[in-house]
Amino acid sequence: MSVRARYLPAYELTKSFRLLIALFSIADTRRRTLYCAGGCSHAWHNLSAPSRDAT
Q1: CA 46/CA 40 separation, integer angstroms
Q2: CA distance 15 to 4
Q3: Which CA distances in Å does 17 have to 14, 29, 45?
Q4: Lesser CB count within 10 Å: N end or C end of the chain?
Q5: Residues 6 or more apart whose Cβ sits within 8 Å of residue 39
Q6: Is the pTM for the entire model greater than 0.70?
Q7: d(C-alpha 28, C-alpha 47), whole Å
Q8: How many whole angstroms separate alpha carbon 13 and alpha carbon 1?
Q9: CA 53-25-48 angle, 5° bins
Q10: CA distance 12 to 1
């Protein structure tokens, strides 16, 4: 983490984290469209949806 990031208020750190997650999401979607369009064997692309049952 940058030395300057230590001095940011908590709400700025939260905003920065959310921005990075959004950026990674966009980059991953673009990469999937370009390189994994015909299907792929990457394990992280083939994860099953988490169960929503509380039992």
Answers
A1: 9
A2: 15
A3: 5, 18, 23
A4: C
A5: none
A6: no
A7: 15
A8: 11
A9: 30
A10: 14
